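Follow-up to my post from last week.
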Amino acid sequence: MSQGTPHVEDVLGTVDRRLWRRILGHARAYKGAAYAMMAGGVILAIVESLLPLVTGLLIDAVIGEASTSRITWLGVAYAGLSVSFCVIVWWFIVAAGKLATGLAHDLRQASFQRLQELEFAYFDVQPAGWLVSRLTSDCRKVASLMPWFLLDLCWGATFLVVVGGGMLLIDWVLGLCVLAVVPVLVLVTIFFQRKLLRSSRLMRKTNSELTAVYNEGITGLWTTKSLSREPENIGEFQTVSQSMCNYSMRNSIETSIFLPIVTSISGMGVGIALWVGGVQIQDGEGLSIGMLIAFMQYAVLFAMPVRELAARISDLKGAQAAAERIQGLLDREPEIADSEEVKSRITAAAAGQRHGSAADGGDHRIEAIDFRDVSFWYKPEEPVLEHLDLSIAAGETIALVGPTGGGKTTIASLLCRFYEPCEGGIFINGIEYRKRSLHWLQSSLGIVLQHPHLFSGTVARNIAYGQPEATMEQIEAAARTVEAHDFITQLADGYEFEVGEGGSRLSMGQRQLIALARAVLADPQVFVMDEATSSVDTETEHHIQRGIEAILEGRIAVVIAHRLSTVRSADRILVIQGGKIVEQGSHEALLKADGAYQALYRRHFAGS
Amino acid sequence: MSTRPARITRVMLGEPRLYGAAIGAMVLSSLLLYLAPLVPQVVIDGVLLPSGEGPSGFERFILSLIGGAEFIGNNLWWAAVVVLLLTAAAGVFSYFRGVWAALATERIVQRMRDDLYRRLQRVPVGFIDKSETGDLIQRCTSDVDTVRLFLSAQVVEVARAVAMLIVPLPIMLLVSPLMTLASVVLLPPIVIFAVVYFKRIRSAFLDVDEAEAALTSTVQENVTGIRVVRAFAQQQQECEHFDERNGRHRDLDNHLYRVLAWFWSTSDLMCMVQKMIVVGTGLVLLGMGKLEVGAFFFFLTAVGMFVWPIRQMGRILAELGKAQVAMGRIDYVLGQPEESDGESGQVLDGAALDGAISFRGVSFAHVESMPVLHDIDLEIKGGQTVALVGPSGCGKSTIINLLMRFYDPDEGEILLDGVDLRSIDRASLRSNLSVVLQEPFLYSRSLHDNLAMGRRDAEESEIVEVATVAAIHDSIMQFDEGYATVVGERGVTLSGGQRQRLSIARALLRDPAVLVLDDALSAVDTRTERAILGALKERHHRHTTIIIAHRLTTVMQADEVIVLDEGRIIDRGPHEDLVRRDGLYRRLWDIQHEGMDALGEGGT
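User reply:
Got it. Predicted complex:
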């Protein structure tokens, strides 16, 4: 049921290096910043590992009453290292910012572009929320982890090599003794990082469940109250909030065990250094007090890179699902797109633009539309349309009527090339529409849907959606045509009224009128209206009927409606049932024919 | 301003014992963490370096605790074991600190989440209507997370920083007051710098948040409106619009990184200088023979242990405001009045209910989004079917909302079986009225569960029966999983008509005394509608039915049709009477009925 929610066991898998290399490939533009990060990591590790050494040398120099110049020299080195540490910190944060924000930006840009190209079937199966989080949180997660991964990889590796090597160089016996704790440290760290990764994944999953339950609780409140279901809802919520609490506790307990164990292992290293080094000093074997102190500091520091490296690797694993989702989106080829041939014609036509021709060099005018033997299905065993033939001549208005699920909307969607026929073809001016530019076709159509989507912004901006450069006069004229002007001027700010997200501040009927005005303003060659006025009240619908008829005059129009009063004026009415055209003709002719239409008509007006 | 801190402390005081225990464990663990480096110090000073004046009295005391100088000198491994034991013991306490603090936090947060959800279920629907869903969810999720982070990490972090500083102070002062001064001299500037800097760059954080919100809503709108984008071939413009927001977000975010780079590097430098002061002062004292090497080592370690937490503390203090703002936003929700104001109303006996409804002089005005009603008088007998008709905004739905007690009338009274609604227990009232809305809400679970929501104990056969009446059974059987099919975000998307029919079935299953169809058939085609109305008619005697519809053929079979306009009843009567009278109803009928003549005889 939870498609897209990665299975918890995934996190125990390995890091998919190929995937991450591809993600890194998107950061090619920020190569400089990436190298800067890596260099920063190396230098930082060297500086950090030198600091205890210099401190140790300083102590030795003072105890041993070395020359003032040596002490001064070491003091300057110490100060210099401290200052360069700070400079590097500044340096890599700036580089990290460049890389992280740039990569996030580029991934988003590419993903958004791809979303604009993908076919509708993709949006049918992907809930909007999932798509949105792909572009927002997934991109953020993947991009912001990248610089720190590069930094810590270089820093940790350098630190381990320099400090480990340094200790061995200074005193290999003592060095080996202190390093003996490292394997234990590594094992413990890996063990706990896995556990933590798993529990934090569970936390995140439960957290999104929690959000979903809140969402349902809020948006479904009317229904909940109608069903007086509040107590059950509260009970169900508490189950989720309890498991959230449990997973958070599990995560906290694991962290609370993990960190002390790491500290204890470091303590063991310090103890070993004190013991073995102390014995050496007692025996007068040459190890100095300063070096012993340096060794003990190294023993403490050693846990750091191990911990950081392990944490970054589990970050990578934790974000792997997000990376896969983004890469998956980017890799997806749009199923409905201009063919190579069409693309090359568009390029060719752009070079020598002929007057009156479309961007792909073909006819701009749409004179005739023919469905020839068109079949369509989502699943082959359940055909939606079967061997449909339909010709629409220039200037003709056709109406599609018939029961729900009969295939009316599918015909409209195929015409708009939101979907393509599974069999057969749709011909425009005698040319199969897959041989024409998709953009040309869709910008020639004016499509009004039953549940019109408005964008947040003003009424005026919504009406001008297809024609952003339209003047206020044009916008008002369009609104008047569909009888929307009066209600708009009665809104608080008239045409400047903010419609809210998805048009939520307007009623469904008002939204439909604005959508209608939007299509009118776009001045398309072909109108497609799918239940475009189903929520408009009867009187208003009656009023706009004339306006719409005037607009449809001389254009091709395909109208779908339940209300027969809406379709009566069509040139031709087609009754669609079970994926087939069962009857067609003018209103008067069909009424006389005593067939499916007449039955529909009688049912509509009569009692039984 | 002065009341604000009270909010967050009030929340923290919810688990005083756990927090107290956590703080105790923390003090003990930091004490032990400091004792651990003391051991190498005294060993170096007292055992390995028996130079000059020898170990101080304090150091001799510590040495004697772990076995005395001579014993240690011969058994250095014991010192190692002591170091390990001390860190392990510190670990045990830090474990308890972590677990107790987490337990306190999680309990508080869980309580807060439950309270929020409970409150949101009990507020009047008007509150939800005037609020933005996204904003409410944000209050319940990210604001709660902010408070949680504050309680679980930041409070503990501040307490730890304080403990790390306070615990070693006596020892440090005992060993060397001058070195102690050198160790803490830069701490106040470090904290002040952090607080001031973060306060000043708060707007940079807010800018990024805003830019991200703008980015998210752009994507959200594009994805939900993708059909319109394609229908108007606006992909190019949408991309440009997105690019602009995307670029702005990148620039602001990048700016934030730069600002933070200055903070971290500068405050790192201050911490480093603090260490340098310790090293410098220590070396001078060491050279003068006024400090033992072991003590020097101890100071070095101590500074390394408290300087970073102290810097963090500064940042956290600056971010305290965030948690307070979040808490304020949560309190806003928790402060909303609940719908049932405590009155213990009468509980209805569903089976005995007749379903007679009267509106007596009902007027209603005060909710902005709802049409006004003027002086409505209405008598509906039990078992009657009544239709409400009128243009959009005439007040039809408001009547239903008053009947359901989503709102209460300003004037007049509404009676159910002769009882004033206000004296009836709200839950009991609603479970005897079933309303089907135009845009019904389905829960994201199986179809079966959605149907059974009205009545938990419904049997399979009853569910199938109501689904058949609502003409949805056949559609359900076409799904691969039948009644087990999950709907909503995570499952199958249903068409508007399917949702309406499903919720009609859900309402019927409750077998309510009063059934209300609020434009609940608008997305159902005429044939299906007729089938549903026919089946409802057969069950007629069982319910008082109120139908709201635009299509007059839907309402013509009602016993009485009420015609509303601008919040007033302008006409009423059976369909046959109304079509004969001149008026709104007749006008609507004519519009919808034009062309009927073509059929010759018209009607039945």
